[in-house]
Design brief:
It is a single chain. The protein has a single domain, classed as Methane Monooxygenase Hydroxylase, Chain G, domain 1, CATH 1.20.58. It has 3 helices and no strands.
Length: about 100
């Protein structure tokens, strides 16, 4: 990447929204830390962890969508095949967990 001509990422248009969501997730994680420190009920902690995972999944799906529309569809020829393989590998990593 040339610093004079930076690459525009597919999520550039939603960057502020992504940062806001990630900041909320960060706050949720701090909340879970506090719950553990306070020795809160296990099920309540697990419920919050589940909410954090769902929030991260939503961020990930948004990034996948942006990648598909911006990077894969916008690519040509062999580059499109490469970007599609990257997309599918990322989907595979998300599904495996």
């Amino acid at each position: 990447m040339n610093p004079i001509d930076p690459v525009t990422r597919g999520y550039a248009a939603t960057k502020d929204q992504l940062i806001s969501r990630l900041n909320r997730v960060e706050g949720q994680v701090r909340g879970v830390t506090g719950m553990v420190e306070q020795e809160r009920y296990c099920i309540d902690v697990l419920t919050q962890i589940s909410a954090i995972q769902a929030a991260l999944d939503k961020v990930a799906l948004g990034l996948l969508d942006d990648h598909a529309h911006h990077c894969v569809i916008g690519a040509t020829g062999a580059e499109q095949a490469e970007k599609t393989q990257e997309l599918m590998a990322a989907v595979g990593r998300l599904v495996r967990r």
